[in-house]
C-alpha cells in the first residue's frame, strides 16, 4: 500500500501536479490527488519522511531532469515539478524538525541593490526549493546591509546574488567585501548569476561559484553539500 | 477532410483596385494587338472557330497571328471553375482551392537536372590537431530515378509539403523520351501519397500516365472524383507565343478535363518589359490566352492561373529568382488571379545561389514570406531548389520545411477575443498576488497544444553552428521512415498494363 502511494507521488512529480486542481502534462491523472494531498496522505499513513523524499519526490525529480535533458520537457515543466516538490517539503518540514532530521542547507537569494530584475532569481528559487533546500527569497534591490544582517541572524549556508545589469553587478563585490568586514565570509558560500556576470567575474570578486542558470545552481549546491558531508566525516 | 493549408486572413496586396483594372484592360488590348503568335495549328483552328482573327505569318515555321477578342476571354473566365480540387492517393491530402479564398498550400518543384549530394568530411586544425570540424561539401551530379524516389519519399514526411511536383529530372541510361513520363509518374506516386503535379515529356505518354492514375485511384470515375494527378503546361512562351508541342499537350489534358496549371514564365528585361507595368500586363495576357484556349477545348476544365514571372540578372541575363522584383511580380499575379476568382499557381523560394548557405537562406526566406503573405492558393515554393531552377538538394528541402513551419505559424490569425481577454485578466489578477509574479505555470496548458511556435529544430549547441549536420540527420531519419507504397495488386496491374516501367521500381519484386 505504502509503495503504491509513493509511486503515485513520483508520477505526480513527473507530471508536475502540485494539487488535485492541476492538469499535468496530460489528463491521465486529472482530478486525482496531487503531490500536496498525497504527501499529506502518506504522512497520515505513517510512511517515513525518508521514503517519501527519496523514493517519491527525489526519484520523480530525477526523471523530470532526464526528460529535460532529452528535450522532452521544458523549463515550465521543470518548474511545475519543482514547485510541487517544494510544496511537499513545506508539509514535511515540521515532521523533519521534530525528528531532528538534518535537511539540506538554508539558501538566501536576492537581486542586488539598484537592480529590480528577478525572473531568473525567482526561477532559481523555485528549482532550489524543489531540490530540497530551505529557500529564503529576500527580493529585489536589496541593500547590502540587509544581506549582511540576514547572514548574521539566520546563518544560511548559501547566499545567491543576482544581477542583470553591468551597472549593478559591481554590487556583488561590495556584498562580498561587507561579509568579509563583518567576519561572516567563511560562514556562507556566495553564488552569483545573471546575464551580466561570468565565471571570470566570479573569480575577480571572490565569489565561490558562478551559475549560468538554476539547473547549474542545483548541481553546484549538490557539490558543496557532498563536500560538507565529507568534511564532517573526515 | 482536405489538407488545411493556411488561410491568410488579410492577404498582402501591392496593387490598387485601379491598377488591377488597368492591367486587365491592357491585357485585353495585348490579346488583340499585337495578339499572340501561334505555332500550333489546332489552337489556331479552335480560337478561329470561336471568333478570333487569324492571319498566317510568312516564314520558315508555320505560324499564325491570333487576335483574341475580349468577349472570348470574358466567357472563358466565366466558364473556368472558381474552385479546383486536387485529389491525392491519401484522400486526407486532398487540396481544395477557392479562387477567392487566400488559403495557401505549399508545394514542391519545379524540375531540376542536377541533384546535389552532401557529405561532411572532417578537417583538422593545423595548429591544434585535437581540434576537428566537419564541413559540408556539396557534389552536383545528374539526377536519377532513384533520386526522384528519395525526394518523393522525404517530401511525403515533410509536414509543410502539401503537394508534390517532381523535383528532379530523371536521366538514367535506361530512361528514354518514350519511358520517362511513366517512370517519373510512378516513382513519384509510389513514394508519396500527396497530390502529384507534373509536366509531360511526350504527349504519346499521356494516355499511359492517365491510365496509371486510374488504376491507382480505382477507375476512370474514381479519378474524376479524386484527381490524384494534374499537369503543368507552359503553352505560352514569352513573349506571346503559343508553342507547338506544349499547346498540343495542353489541349489533350483539357479534353480529359484533368486539372492543369496554365503557366507562363516571362523574364523581365529579355522576354518581357523590364518594368513592372509591362511584365504584369504581358504575363496576365499570356495566362488569359491559355485559360481561354482551355475553356474553348472543354468548358469547365479546372485550370490554375500559373505565374512564374522573373526578373533577368543584369550580369548574365539569366533568371534571377532571388531578386526582389521577382517576388513583387508574383504578389501582383496572386492579386490578379484573385480578381478573376481563379486559383493561383505561384512561385517563391527559388534562389540564385548554387549551394545551401547564408545567401540561399536569405533569398528563399525573403520571397517565401512575402509571396506567402499575398495568399496564392498553390504556391510552388521551391523546396530544395537552388541555382535558380537547376539544382535540387534534399538537405535544403529539409531546411525549407523548418522555415515554412515558421511562416505558417506567422500567418495564423490573431486570437484576440472576449474569452481570451477574460482568461488573461484572470491570470493577471492571480499572478500579481503571488510573491514571484511569474506567469510560467500558465504556459503548460498551451505548451503542447500547438499554440506556441517551436524552437528552430536545427539549433546548434553553444556557439557551434550545427544546422546542416542536424538537418542531414533528420533527412536520414525521414528516409528511414517507411512510406505507404501503392499496394501489391495495383502495382502488378500497373506493371502489366503500362509499358516502359523500370522493373527496379517495383518494390514487391526487388530481390526476388
How would you describe this protein?
The complex is a heterodimer of chains A (about 230) and B (about 500). Chain A folds into 2 domains: about 1-100, Methionine synthase domain (Methyltransferase, Methionine Synthase (B12-binding Domains), Chain A, domain 1, Orthogonal Bundle), CATH 1.10.1240; about 105-235, Cobalamin-binding domain (Rossmann fold, 3-Layer(aba) Sandwich). With about 230 residues, chain A is an alpha/beta fold. In chain A, helix 7 (about 170-180) links the parallel strand 3 (about 160) and strand 4 (about 190-195). The radius of gyration of chain A is 19 Å and the shape is globular. Chain A is about 55% helix and about 10% strand. Chain A is built from 9 helices and 5 strands, in the order H-H-H-H-E-H-E-H-E-H-E-H-E-H. The mean pLDDT of chain A is about 90. In chain A, helix 1 (about 1-15) runs antiparallel to helix 2, helix 1 (about 1-15) packs parallel to helix 3 and helix 6 crosses helix 7. Chain A has a 5-stranded parallel beta sheet, sandwiched between helices. By secondary structure, chain B is α/β, with parallel strands linked by helices. Chain B folds into 2 domains: about 5-15 and about 80-120 and about 135-410, Alpha-Beta Barrel (TIM Barrel), CATH 3.20.20.480; about 420-445. A 9-stranded mixed beta sheet of chain B has the order 1-7-23-22-19-17-14-13-12. Chain B has a 5-stranded mixed beta sheet with strand order 3-4-2-16-15. In chain B, helix 1 (about 15-30) crosses helix 9 (about 275-295), helix 3 packs across helix 9 and helix 4 (about 145-155) packs parallel to helix 5. The model of chain B has no long low-confidence stretch (mean pLDDT about 95). The chains are: A alpha/beta (about 230), B alpha/beta (about 500). The interface of A and B includes residues 16, 23, 80 and 123 of A.
Amino acid at each position: 500500500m505504502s509503495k503504491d502511494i509513493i509511486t503515485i507521488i513520483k508520477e505526480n512529480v513527473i507530471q508536475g501536479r502540485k494539487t488535485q486542481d492541476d492538469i499535468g502534462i496530460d489528463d491521465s491523472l486529472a482530478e486525482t490527488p496531487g503531490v500536496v494531498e498525497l504527501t499529506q496522505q502518506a504522512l497520515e499513513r505513517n510512511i517515513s519522511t525518508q521514503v517519501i523524499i527519496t523514493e517519491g519526490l527525489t526519484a520523480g525529480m530525477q526523471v523530470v531532469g532526464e526528460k529535460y535533458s532529452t528535450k522532452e520537457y521544458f523549463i515550465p515543466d521543470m518548474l511545475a515539478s519543482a514547485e510541487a516538490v517544494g510544496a511537499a517539503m513545506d508539509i514535511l518540514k515540521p515532521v523533519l524538525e521534530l525528528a531532528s532530521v538534518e535537511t539540506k542547507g538554508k539558501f538566501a537569494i536576492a537581486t542586488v541593490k539598484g537592480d529590480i530584475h528577478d525572473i531568473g532569481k525567482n526561477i532559481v528559487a523555485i528549482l532550489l526549493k524543489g531540490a530540497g533546500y530551505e529557500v529564503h527569497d529576500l527580493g529585489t534591490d536589496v541593500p547590502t546591509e540587509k544581506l549582511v544582517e540576514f547572514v548574521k541572524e539566520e546563518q544560511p549556508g548559501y547566499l545567491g546574488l543576482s544581477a542583470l545589469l553591468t551597472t549593478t553587478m559591481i554590487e556583488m563585490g561590495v556584498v562580498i567585501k561587507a561579509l568579509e568586514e563583518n567576519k561572516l565570509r567563511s560562514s556562507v558560500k556566495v553564488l552569483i548569476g545573471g546575464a551580466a556576470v561570468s565565471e571570470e567575474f566570479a573569480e575577480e570578486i571572490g565569489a565561490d561559484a558562478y551559475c549560468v542558470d538554476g539547473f547549474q545552481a542545483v548541481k553546484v549546491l549538490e557539490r558543496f553539500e557532498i563536500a560538507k558531508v565529507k568534511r564532517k566525516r573526515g | 477532410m482536405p489538407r488545411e493549408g493556411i488561410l491568410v486572413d488579410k492577404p498582402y496586396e501591392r496593387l490598387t483596385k485601379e491598377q488591377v483594372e488597368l492591367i486587365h484592360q491592357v491585357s485585353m488590348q495585348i490579346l488583340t494587338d499585337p495578339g499572340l503568335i501561334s505555332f500550333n495549328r489546332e489552337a489556331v483552328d479552335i480560337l478561329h472557330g470561336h471568333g478570333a482573327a487569324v492571319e498566317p505569318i510568312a516564314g520558315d515555321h508555320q505560324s499564325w497571328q491570333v487576335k483574341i477578342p475580349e468577349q472570348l476571354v470574358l466567357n472563358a473566365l466565366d466558364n473556368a471553375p472558381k474552385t479546383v480540387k486536387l485529389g491525392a492517393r491519401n484522400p486526407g491530402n486532398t487540396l481544395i482551392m477557392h479562387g477567392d479564398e487566400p488559403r495557401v498550400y505549399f508545394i514542391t518543384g519545379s524540375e531540376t537536372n542536377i541533384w546535389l549530394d552532401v557529405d561532411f568530411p572532417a578537417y583538422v586544425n593545423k595548429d591544434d590537431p585535437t581540434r576537428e570540424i566537419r564541413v559540408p561539401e556539396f557534389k552536383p551530379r545528374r539526377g536519377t530515378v532513384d533520386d526522384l524516389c528519395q525526394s518523393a519519399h522525404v517530401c511525403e514526411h515533410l509536414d509543410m509539403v502539401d503537394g508534390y511536383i517532381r523535383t528532379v529530372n530523371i536521366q538514367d541510361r535506361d530512361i528514354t523520351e518514350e519511358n520517362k513520363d511513366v517512370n517519373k509518374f510512378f516513382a513519384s506516386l509510389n513514394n508519396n501519397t500527396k497530390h502529384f503535379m507534373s509536366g509531360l515529356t511526350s504527349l504519346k505518354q499521356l494516355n499511359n500516365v492517365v491510365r496509371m492514375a486510374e488504376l491507382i485511384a480505382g477507375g476512370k470515375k474514381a479519378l474524376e472524383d479524386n484527381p490524384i494527378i494534374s499537369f503543368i503546361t507552359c503553352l505560352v512562351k514569352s513573349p506571346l507565343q503559343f508553342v507547338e508541342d506544349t499547346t498540343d499537350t495542353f489541349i489533350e489534358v483539357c479534353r480529359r478535363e484533368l486539372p492543369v496549371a496554365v503557366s507562363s514564365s516571362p523574364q523581365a528585361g529579355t522576354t518581357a518589359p523590364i518594368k513592372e507595368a509591362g511584365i504584369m500586363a504581358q504575363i496576365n495576357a499570356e495566362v488569359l490566352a491559355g485559360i481561354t484556349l482551355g475553356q474553348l477545348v472543354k468548358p469547365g476544365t479546372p485550370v490554375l492561373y500559373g505565374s512564374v514571372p522573373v526578373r533577368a540578372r543584369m550580369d548574365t541575363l539569366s533568371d534571377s529568382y532571388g531578386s526582389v522584383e521577382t517576388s513583387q511580380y508574383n504578389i501582383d499575379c496572386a492579386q490578379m488571379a484573385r480578381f478573376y476568382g481563379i486559383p493561383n499557381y505561384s512561385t517563391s523560394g527559388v534562389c540564385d545561389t548554387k549551394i545551401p548557405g547564408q545567401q540561399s537562406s536569405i533569398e528563399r526566406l525573403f520571397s517565401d514570406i512575402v509571396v506567402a503573405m499575398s495568399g496564392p492558393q498553390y504556391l510552388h515554393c521551391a523546396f530544395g531548389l537552388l541555382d535558380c531552377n537547376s539544382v535540387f538538394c534534399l538537405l535544403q528541402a529539409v531546411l525549407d520545411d523548418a522555415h515554412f513551419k515558421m511562416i505558417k505559424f506567422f500567418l495564423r490569425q490573431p486570437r484576440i477575443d472576449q474569452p481570451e481577454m477574460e482568461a488573461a485578466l484572470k491570470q493577471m489578477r492571480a499572478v500579481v498576488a503571488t510573491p514571484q509574479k511569474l506567469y510560467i505555470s500558465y504556459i503548460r496548458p498551451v505548451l503542447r497544444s500547438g499554440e506556441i511556435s517551436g524552437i528552430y529544430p536545427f539549433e546548434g549547441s553553444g556557439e557551434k553552428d550545427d544546422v546542416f549536420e542536424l538537418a542531414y540527420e533528420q533527412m536520414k531519419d525521414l528516409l528511414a521512415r517507411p512510406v505507404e507504397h501503392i499496394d501489391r495488386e495495383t502495382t502488378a496491374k500497373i506493371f502489366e498494363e503500362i509499358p516502359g516501367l523500370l522493373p527496379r521500381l517495383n518494390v514487391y519484386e526487388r530481390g526476388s
